[in-house]
Amino acid sequence: MKKILLLSMSLVISGCASLGEGMATAFFKKQEEQDLRQCKISGKSFSGMQSSFEQPGDTEKVLMVHGVGTHVAGYSTQFQEKLSTELDLKLKSSRYKEIKLTHPDYPGVDLGELRVRRLMNEDHSREMLFYELTWSAITNPEKEKIKYDTSGEYSYDRAEVNQLLKQFSNDASPDPMIYLGKSRGEIIASFRTAFCWMVENDWDTLPEESSELCRISNNAAKYLKDDAFSIISHSLGSRIVLDGMHDIAARVTEVASGDTSSAESKFIAALQEKEIPFYLMSNQIPLLEMGENPQEVTGEMDAYCLPEGEHYDKRLVKKTSIMAFSDPNDLLSYGIPQFFVQNYLDSRLCAEVTNIKINVAHVMDLFGMGKFANPMTAHTGYDSDDRVIALIAKGIGTKHTSDIVTERCEWTEYID
After folding, report:
1. Residue 17 lies in a domain
2. 255 lies in some domain
3. What tens digit of pLDDT does each residue of 73-107 get?
4. CA distance linking residue 36 with residue 32, whole number of Å
């Protein structure tokens, strides 16, 4: 009888546990199904990539730069799939073109890889070239110094969840320190080289594979004039993009008074007439400005960006539209207030910022004990969020704006 009683009690207890677990799962699933995640946009209207396809034969070139953590070629596949669907680009090249990045300032150094894919609509009248930059090869060797920490010798008595968190921390947290240390120049050179390949070639002139140096020729000015360009980044990638553009701005200043007939001068002249949007997901620009030396030129946007300005001929681009995405529950992302634009961004970028505060992670009510959102999802979920994709593809405040943005996002429009 005792054995039967114990068996019965154990079945009841396990049944209650299963019932409790099932109720909790159903409770959280119901909250996710309601999808009350906020999306608040503050800034001027922006047109997204759709505006690049006004005329048959138009080409949009997109450069994507990853953030912290080890990435391998192909990391942007899900983002590419969702973006191409939103833009109705159903045709894809059967192969990638792969460029091993090299730079004369860093001979023999592996600066990562640029992987390029071609996307088109069904009648071939619209084309996107998607350039995926993978720079992890630069920082991975440094991470070997702490690889022992997640081996069996040190992890055998660590709780399973903590071990997973430790693995993520050891992979992701060193990258900003390595970037702000000795590898900064190499990572910026990786970005600049990727940018060079993007402006210097079309699909037909890109080699299938290459490890050659990229050098600016007269082609760059032609493609800058004819094609549209966008840059997408995540977390630390945002800092890399801005620093890379600052570096180009410094070189523009040096060359601006030089021989106007050279290929580089023609490239600079074409770049100065360009408007390039930056889509910064999990934006970390303010955080990574800590401890930095100030940019060379700040607080002088009127002098550099207005046609009547004293230094208008030394601007980098005509305008840089920055769309800064941040989840309030992402512990490592930040908005970019106007005072930060004026005081900390290089004036030669002629930056105009739209802040997009968006919950990419669901906020859960923990049975009345408070609300919680997974900070990991809040940091990594941008490139799979339909609203983020729709904003990048079709913007807001234009005839192309997607229904999901109109229905799910609040927009506070800024005017001059």
Report:
1. no
2. yes
3. 999 999 999 999 999 999 999 999 999 999 999 99
4. 8
